[in-house]
Amino acid sequence: MTESAGLQGLVSVRNVDKVFKRGSEEIHVLGGLDLQIPEGEFLALMGPSGSGKSTLLNLIGGLDRPSQGAVEVGGERIDQLSDRRLAAWRARHVGLVFQFYNLMPMLNAQKNVELPLLLTHLSRSDRKKRAAIALDIVGLSHRLNHYPRTLSGGEQQRVGIARAIVTDPTLLLCDEPTGDLDRKSGDEVLELLQALNREQGKTIVMVTHDIHAAARATRTLYLNKGRLTTEPEDLVA
Amino acid sequence: MKFLYLVWTNLKRKKMRTVLTVLSILVAFLLFAYLAAIRQSFSQGIDVAGLDRLIVRHKVSIIQLLPVAHEARIEQVEGVVDAVHQTWFGGVYQKPTNFFPQMPVDPEEYIAMYPEVLLGDAEREAWLNTRSGAVAGRQIADRFGWKIGDRIPINATIWTRKGGASTWEFDLVGIYDGAERGTDTSMFLFRYDFFDESRQFGQGLVGWYTVRIADPERSAEMVAAIDAIFANSQYETKTEAEGAFLQGFADQIGNVGLIITAIVAAVFFTILIVAGNTMAYSVRERTNELAVLKALGFSDRGVLGLVLGECFLLTAIGGGLGLFLGWLLVSMGDPTGGSLPVFYIPNRDMLVGVVLIVLMTVVAGILPALQAGRLQIADALRR
Amino acid sequence: MAGLFNWVSQIASIALFNLRSMPQRVGSSVTAVIGIAGVVAVMVSVLSIAQGILSTMENSASPNNAIVLRSGATSEMMSIVVGDDARIIAEAPGLARGEGGALASPELFVIINLSKRSTGTDANVPLRGVTPQAPLVRDRFRLVEGRMFEWGRNEVIVGVGAQREFEGLDIGSSITVAKEDWPVVGIFESGGGLAETEIWVDALVLQPAYQRGNSYQAVYAKLESPQAFQSFKDALTSDPRLNVKSLRESEYYAEQSAVLYNLITGLGTLIAVIMGLGATFGALNTMYTAVSARAREIATLRALGFRSGPVVISVLFESLMLALLGGVIGAVLAWLAFDGFRAATLNWSSFSQVAFAFDVTPGLLALGVSFALLIGLVGGLFPAVRAARQPVSEALREQ
């Protein structure tokens, strides 16, 4: 894995289109999009519903492929990788945080955090250690053995973050991480993300509706009708 | 392996459903094992028939008798090692439902012809020294609680005694065991000389002959040679290899094997649908989770493997238990209370059972597994 | 009254609601139906074999007829009745009379080997030596092709069942008995009874061929009326010259078929029970899934005021409907595939083939459907009760 590529940024999205087919209809969600994200940035992506923010996030994280254009992360053209290699790449380089946490209900917190490590060659004890460390970072060591149904929303999301960072990924992608949380829990989660960015230099891309959440980021971009801008567009214009 | 844990916990999600599916599969395999035993018992020992033995009977039908003088003439045929006669006694012990074969034979010769009949030396001596002596197979001895020294009365329905009485009394001098699992140990054997001198009619006539030949390869030749001796005489014969003879007998009962196979196929097909549907349903329910696994980096093949693994675990547990319980049930004895001569599950059928477990996994699980493998992450996550 | 009406309307609305949401659960519902159909089809098919054999036996028996065998004989084959005794028997009271005298037919019963059409291997066929009274005693006897054999000649007639099951029994062929060829000159029916699997010949021709002298094996007699049996029997028992036993034909055939009938019925029931267990598990699975899929909806209904009772009944109703569907499909399948299917098997008591047809009786169909309903009941009861007892708030929260 090559190190960050200077001018180009850790993440380089170039002239990307994304078209969805709904039956016979074609929906152009993204068109000719360009984006550079330097290493160590905490980027917030905002925009109205249906603007394609989640789609863009998915493209960056290798969860989907562009209809056209290039997506390069850490010097690697992920849009050209086969499905199998993309999966392996994802496991190594991307940490995902979801709005609805998406924890496995039948696994306890520790096992949930260990999940991505199953895809590595680490021994059982190493996996356990790493998971414990990750849970410690998010402040939930005391909840190691708890199952998701006995955790509050905020706690579940923090477990989600622990799972996202346990493989020490290049990139942390968060899709509305505070969308389902109350103010207090949401703030705790955002604190955590900020700390990860500032103290550990994690590159974070966060999609959000929430202005307060976006305020925590180092840069905010707005996505509207498939175009990225630095200023929020008026609905009237 | 580490993924086993994942597969296992998935099964624990809906315990009731997992348990019920396993039970359905268990039942299917239990039935498979049990029916295998029943089918085997209807084969009437064809598997253990001697390759070097022929059966010689009256050409018209087996109930026609042959002269005992035939024995010497058969033994004169080149390639024949030995010939022994047997006759169907057809008596009743206590009540008609206590059915077992009874046959007067020449003790020494019979034992020599059927090495799978295991009789102790002392018991054999006793048989040779007791005119009214009889030897019973382990199965009926156990069934009726007979012990050596017992007097066994048998009521003749065909062979009245001189003087008109129909009850024959025998002294039980020995109990024989079978050398193999499939050997018939339900026979009651007594002495031909005692029989011949006591019967009211039919002196010098016997039921059929068992002939041992030196070279099984020459079986067809021997059959023709023996029948040629008696052709156009008053007592024409029909000779067959022992296996063919038993098969013909089984065929008279009807194609039991086919019927049983059909039933088993119906059962399996039904269970397959049940298992397959359960798998499909559980995969559909977990679309979101499977998508998350893929998002985290599990490959398509990995997710496919997970689903197949679940299916295999279900089938293996259910199938394994089913085969085991079936075997247990069969070893408890035959359901008709003793009238089936043999009752056990052949090893070959157990092996088939194991193969079926694997087959069922593949057939029931392949579609849901493929479906899981092909999940598009972005679509699935959005649901 | 209002309470009952309330209940019924609640049940109806939930049931309707259930049915409307069925399409979502088509997969598991179809599974349950198939499972139950399979069980019922197999059960009915196997039991119809036993029924078929029983029917053949019953069709053989006429209420007016009796059989006389040697005392102690369990079947014709084991019995001996000498010619003189047969004459004495024909003089007993209670016998119907025809032109030729009392309707009593002494008969001989032996077995010959013929090749079975279906397997090509040999099987035992009954060869019966009859007297001129025989067709009169068996009042369902009818020649359907060819002619009756000439008395005193080496000619035979064969039953439709025998002709169908065995090779070489068409008109014009011959069977070989005691090294002579006896031509087949006619084919007969006998009301679907055992006689249809037999070959008939003049007893006086058969006796010398088998060195039987002047003896027979049984006497078939037609009584004046069913009630005349007792006096007939008593006369024979009290006669010091005879050592015989008399049975009504129906008793005799019931005995003959007992072993086979019990064996098949026993086996069939065992298989049905085991399969039924499997189907029940399948049904339980389906219903638990169905219930959990709609846990939230059911809870909502209850939160809105619908009572538990109607919920239970509506779930049960669905389960029973599925089971009924499965049961009917299975029963109809068995009927379509097997009713009237002809086969032949070994009759242990005569050690010869008996041809029969699988008989899927209305009774069996009803049994099959009842069994299906039982499965549906068990399969639906537990999930239904569970659905009704789950605390509403918990169910509403359930994912």
Question: What brief labels describe this structure?
Answer:
heterotrimer; A: alpha/beta; Rossmann fold; four-stranded antiparallel β-sheet; 10 strands; 32% helix; 26% strand; C: 399 residues; alpha+beta; ten-stranded mixed β-sheet; two-stranded antiparallel sheet; 16 strands; 52% helix; elongated
Structure description:
The complex is a heterotrimer of chains A (237), B (383) and C (399). Chain A contains seven helices and ten strands. Chain A has 237 residues and is of the alpha/beta class. Chain A has a single domain, classed as P-loop containing nucleotide triphosphate hydrolases (Rossmann fold, 3-Layer(aba) Sandwich), CATH 3.40.50. Chain A is globular and about 45 Å long. By secondary structure, chain B is α+β, with helices and mostly antiparallel strands. Chain B has two domains: 173 residues, no CATH class; 200 residues, no CATH class. Chain B has 14 helices and twelve strands. Chain C has two domains: 199 residues, no CATH class; 171 residues, no CATH class. In chain C, the strands form four sheets. In chain C, strands 1, 5, 6, 7, 8, 9, 10, 11, 13 and 14 form a ten-stranded mixed sheet that branches. Chain C has a two-stranded antiparallel ribbon with strand order 2-12. Chain C has a two-stranded antiparallel sheet with strand order 3-4. The mean pLDDT of chain C is 84. The interface between B and C is large, with 53 and 54 residues.
